[in-house]
Amino acid sequence: MRQFIMKHKNFIKIAAFLCIFLFLLQTVTYIIRTNGLVKDRFTGFYGEKNNTLDVVMIGSSPVFPCFAGAKMYGSHGFTAYPLSSNMQRPMAALSLVKETEKTQHPKLYLFELKQFTANEEDMADNMAYTRGVTDNMKYSWNRIDAINRAVPEVGERYTYYFDIFKYHSNWKTMVLPSQIACWRYERLEPLKGFEFKADYYPMEQLDCSQVTDMKPIEADYEGYLRELLQYLQDHDMQALFTVAPYVYESADKQRNYNYMQRIVESYGYQFLNLNDYTEEMGFDYATDFYDKGVHTNAIGAEKVTDFLGAYLDQHYDLPDHRLSSTAQQSLDQRQLEQAEKDHENYKSWDQAYERWSQQMEESRAGLQEKIAAGAYLDQKAQD
Amino acid sequence: MDREELFERLNTVFRDVFDDEDITVTDLTTANDIEDWDSLEHINLMAAVEEEFGIKFTMGQIVSMKNVGQMADIIQEKLG
Amino acid sequence: MNITSFQFLCFFTVLLALYYIIPKKMQWGLLLIASIGFFQAAGEWWLIIYPVTTIMIIYFGALYLHRVKEQKKKQIVLSLVVVLCVFLLCILKYFHLGLLAPLGISFYTLTLLGYLFDVYYEIGEPETNIGRLALFGYYFPTMISGPIVQYKEVKDQLYAGHAFDYTRVTFGLQRMIWGFFKKLVISERMGLVVNTVFNQYQDHSGLTVVIGAVCFTFQLYTDFGGCMDIVIGASEALGIILPENFDTPFFATNISEYWRRWHITLGTWLKNYLFYPLLRTKFFSTLPKKLKPKFGKKTAKKLTTYLAMLILWFTIGFWHGGLWKYIIGSGLLHWFYIVSGEVLEPLWKRLKTWFHVTDGSRGFVCFQRVRTFLLVTIGLIFFRADNVPAACHMLGSIFKEWNPEILWNGYLFELGLDWIEFTIAVVSLCILLLVSVLQQKKGIRERIAEKPLPVRWIIFFAAIFYVILLGNYGPDFSAAEFIYQGF
Q1: Are the Cβ atoms of C276 and B62 closer than 8 angstroms?
Q2: What total number of domains does chain A contain?
Q3: Are A110 and A57 in contact (CB under 8 A)?
Q4: DSSP state of C271
Q5: How close C228 gets to chain A, by Cα (Å)?
Q6: What are the CB-based long-range contacts (under 8 Å, 24+) for A317-320?
Q7: Among A145, A163, C76, C136, which is most exposed with the fewest C-beta within 10 angstroms?
Q8: What residue segments make up the domains of chain B, in order of their start?
Q9: Do B60 and C272 touch (CB under 8 A)?
Q10: Long-range contacts of C253-258, Cβ-Cβ distance < 8 Å, separation of 24 or more
Q11: Residue B47: closest CA among chain C residues belongs to which residue?
Q12: How far apart are CA A337 and CA A326, in angstroms?
């Protein structure tokens, strides 16, 4: 052994140097990736303990201001976490499923489909949308695969593989404690990925209930959707495909969803367009949107979350991790201890629900004030 | 011509070119030893030496000679 | 393929690994293939016609010059080959093929012509293997922007096998990092200020122009010098030691010395193949005698030299791009500096006695260095400005306004670098200065090599991440090309 080391001393040194370099490079990159809510959401995902998530919600920006995982936990006891980024590109969904499976085995995947109705031409140019996903993933083969799927220009890919090329100019943020805490890209997110929107914009519903014909989505996107469905089917995973409430730009969107519904159902999966249930949830188009009918605000989110939480609880076999008093009564001492021990992993969810409830009240109060004054978003911007 | 005489004549040339009566060159004298001996003066020196001995250096010799000793060798060779 | 690009790093890594894996006999072949690949990656495929043609011409020209003894014939063939090569070069450089022109073609042409002259002057033997000659001309580290190597300097290294030498390879890589530091951290930052001042030169006056000009001097030095560190380092890692092109030029105390320290290989080339032959022509060798009766021996000699120097400096200026701003800025102006320095020598002497300065005293040397730096900077204003009138305008505007307040009223940070960026630039320049000073006594790499391993590695990682984090590169920055690459 000693002889071996002496003989290959220089090569061992080179290898050691490279390993340390790559480790440092990874750590530095994790730290200086641009800070913000998307980074928080993904580091929060990686920060969750293994096998503690019951539902993972994948999709674009309609997801995180709308589906509140903390609230679902508070009401039903299952854990739901959003892996969503702005204008998430459709090919990213499968990569995110694979990424999830490394540490979590959720009982259910929930996909929000709005991104599948977009135009590739509008999206491909914008590397920020691709980076929203790939630059928030930990280094792995799956990340390389995700980049290869999303970046057609082979010559550009290296700036995605080594995203330090993009983020090194962020070096000033390296001194922030919140950034340093991301050195492993794991950092619990107190609201479990939810984002409060405390503004409103009055909208009217575009009634498409009579639209029953179909319009194909872009061929590439259909390919990604089918690929995803096939993968879920092959791996025997449960999934629900949804559309969060928003105001369609035109009836063509409804036709797109009709088209996707047929595809999704043909693979034996369920399609739930929440726009069809706004009456049941008491969703008010005049007050419940944050911006021009694209994203819900806090009040709208609460309504949608309540509906969706109940729906999931009813239709899927999801566990209840809360230490509720009713459950405790029937337990003996040893079982109780065990339950408390199991619950250790979910304490952060209790705290998240508490925090969520508190902020919800603040947001509600603020919103109600604005609604009463008629001070909606654009008016404010003009002032 | 023996080496001693050659160096006597070289000394005269050097003193004339560099305007310094104290110069005495040896085999090992190089451009670093004489203050004004830069690339410009080098050519003037070559021309003066050529005139003194009635010979002609090639460009290769001019560029490659390392010290006065080598210069003397070349001169001796040319004079036969 | 820009040598600060990720592609180049990949190219070089693969080459380096292959180079030490394959049998030593095949190493030079690999270098030739890699060099051709490198050249081809830079432009259109058909541009290969240019190097292939010149190499053929030079190859057969050299063989002929070596064989034929008749001086007249030799001269004719030499002139033909030189004219042909320069003609080809001009076609590529000046007839709007500029955009397509392959890298460093001037350097390439000078390198090969130097080889041809050596054969002509019987300083060197001709190369009989055309592949080897091609590698000499093509060798990718030197192809970008020099150093201009002499065949006799590198022939023993280029074709010899090189065993893996840990120290040499690591030293080479360390030098590359140093080059990246100069180019990406300093030069690119300086460039931001330079662009602000030079691109809207009408809007600036006084100290602002001085700052812009000084920044350009640093930009050019760190750009060209950094490029040299990268290519010389890369070559060192491959076991081939190239000649130095810079020797702390701003430590020079006068312009002549500056040119012995700046772009050294170009100076050597011009001295050997232009200046000496020029002085040995009949015209110049008899001129002192003709002038002697009128001016006396000493002055006659000097006048002759000044005239020859005028031609030399004109050529240097012209070589940079045929425009008057180059001919003045890096040619005639320097001729003027040197000549006026000599002509006014008695005046300087008197001034020195007046002010009681002694040659070689620390204060005086310092003054000389600053003076030389400023003289060079004036020349570089021409070099960087749009044209000669613009440069003159800028020089004039320096004296139009006395505005030292920009140093403290925050205006300084509106020239392209905010205060943080500005601080980084200054700190980096201080590191450069410190290393340059240390380097005078003992090589910095040797100093580091003496330290224990953890200290060494910490230094290397610190240096690497300094460049990675503070370098201006990547999608957020438009990748700038090396300034000297076009020449």
Answers
A1: yes
A2: 1
A3: yes
A4: I
A5: 23
A6: A317/A107, A318/A54, A318/A55, A318/A76, A318/A77, A318/A78, A318/A107, A318/A108, A319/A54, A319/A77, A319/A78, A319/A107, A320/A76, A320/A77, A320/A78
A7: C76
A8: 3-79
A9: no
A10: C253/C365, C253/C368, C253/C369, C253/C372, C254/C341, C254/C368, C254/C372, C255/C334, C255/C337, C255/C338, C255/C341, C255/C372, C255/C375, C255/C376, C256/B38, C256/C338, C257/C372, C258/C372, C258/C376
A11: C285
A12: 16
**Residues 6 or more apart in contact with residue C253 via CB below 8 angstroms:** C365, C368, C369, C372
Q: Which residue has the tokens 């952060």?
A: A348
CATH code, domain carrying A376: 3.40.50.1110
Residues A82 and A193: beta-carbon distance below 8 Å: yes
As given in the structure block, the two tokens for residue A7 are 């003989």
CA distance A280 to C404: 72
Residue type present at position B41: E
Work out the number of other CB atoms within 10 angstroms of the CB of residue C313. Answer: 24
* Of residues C166, C461, C473, nearest to A24 (C-beta): C461
Any idea which residue has 């460093």 for tokens? C104
Question: Would you call A292 exposed, middle or buried from its count of C-beta atoms within 10 A (0-12, 13-18, 19+)?
Answer: middle
* CA separation for the pair C223, A363 (Å, rounded): 55
Q: Report the 3 state secondary structure along A6-44.
A: HHCHHHHHHHHHHHHHHHHHHHHHHHHCCCCHHHHHHHH
Q: Which residue has the tokens 């990406």?
A: C184
Token pair for residue C247?
């020797």
**Which class in CATH covers the domain with range B3-79?**
mainly alpha
Nearest-angstrom CA–CA distance, C48 and C113:
18
Q: Per-residue DSSP letters for A74-110?
A: HHH---EEEEE-TT--TTHHHHHHHHHHHH---SEEE
The domain of A251 spans 2-382
H-helix or E-strand spanning residue A270: strand A270-273
CA distance to A50, A296, C55, C88, C103, per residue, from C109 (Å) = 64, 68, 9, 10, 11
Query: What CA–CA distances, in Å, run from A183 to A178, A205, C322?
Result: 10, 45, 54
B 10-69 → C contacts, CB under 8 A? 19, 38-40, 43-44, 46-47, 58-60, 62-64
Q: In this structure, which amino acid lies at residue A213?
A: D
User: Residues A261, A266, A270, A274: what is their CA dihedral angle, to the nearest 10 degrees?
Assistant: 0
Can you give the pLDDT of all 383 residues of chain A as single tens digits?
A: 777 777 788 889 999 999 999 999 999 999 999 999 999 999 999 999 999 999 999 999 999 999 999 999 999 999 999 999 988 999 999 999 999 999 999 999 999 999 999 887 776 567 888 999 999 999 999 999 999 999 988 988 999 999 999 899 899 999 999 999 999 999 999 999 999 999 999 988 888 888 899 999 999 999 999 999 999 999 999 999 999 999 998 899 999 999 999 999 999 999 999 999 999 999 999 999 998 888 999 999 999 999 999 999 999 999 999 887 555 666 778 888 888 888 888 999 999 999 999 999 999 999 999 999 888 876 555 44
- Look at residues C405, C402, C407 and name the one whose alpha carbon lies nearest to residue C426: C407
DSSP H or E run through A57? strand A55-59
Residues of chain C with a CB closer than 8 angstroms to some CB in chain A:
6, 166, 420, 457, 460-461, 464-465, 468-471, 473-477
Question: Is the preceding omega at residue C147 within 30 degrees of 0, hence cis?
Answer: yes
Collapsing DSSP states into helix, strand and coil, what is residue A56? Answer: strand
- For an interface test with A, the pick among C421, C427, C468, C470 (most A C-beta atoms closer than 10 Å) comes out as C468
CB-neighbour burial class of residue A93 (10 A; exposed 0-12, middle 13-18, buried 19+): buried
Count CB atoms within 10 A of the CB of residue C54: 22
Question: For A236-294, where are the alpha helices, taking DSSP H only?
Answer: 251-266, 278-281
In sequence order, what are the residues at sequence separation of 6 or more whose Cβ sits closer than 8 angstroms to the Cβ of residue C392? Answer: none
List beta partners, residue A58: A83, A111
Nearest Cα residue in chain B from C306: B40
